[in-house]
Amino acid sequence: MENPININTQKLINFVSAKFESGELDNNSLVELFKSIGCYLNLETIPNYAKRNNMSYEGVKRFRRIEEIFKVKFVIEND
After folding, report:
1. How far apart are CA 45 and CA 76, in angstroms?
2. How remote is the C-alpha of 77 from its chain's centroid?
3. Digit-coded pLDDT (tens) for 45-79
4. Where are the domains of the chain?
5. CA 40 – CA 78 distance, rounded (Å)
6. Could you tell me where the DSSP H helices lie in 1-79?
7. CA distances from 19 to 5, 14, 25, 37 (A)
8. What's the predicted TM-score (pTM) here?
9. Is the CB of residue 77 less than 8 Å from the CB of residue 50?
10. Considering only CA atoms, which of 15, 64, 13 is closest in space to residue 42?
């Protein structure tokens, strides 16, 4: 079962949604936001992570935090 979204996360989502819907943010802004968030999360695809860390794909899947975003599986390693 997925964790429910906490109140601060929901406020952030609502804020970004309102800014986008009002025209204060555009597609380019959202792409830059996504890139920035990806840096904070250290998002990396499983194959790239495995290669960079000399691990097998299955080893990464079993022992790292994996999240699927837009049907692509990413390793999140920002601890």
Report:
1. 9
2. 11
3. 999 999 999 999 999 999 999 999 999 999 999 87
4. 8-41, 42-79
5. 7
6. 7-21, 27-41, 46-52, 57-63
7. 20, 9, 6, 17
8. 0.77
9. no
10. 64
d(CA 51, CA 46): 9
**Is residue 23 packed enough to be buried (19+ CB in 10 Å), middle (13-18) or exposed (0-12)?**
exposed
The pLDDT-based confidence of 14 (bands split at 50, 70, 90) is very high
The single-letter DSSP state of residue 4 is P
Q: How far apart are CA 65 and CA 61, in angstroms?
A: 8
Alpha-carbon Rg for the chain in angstroms: 15
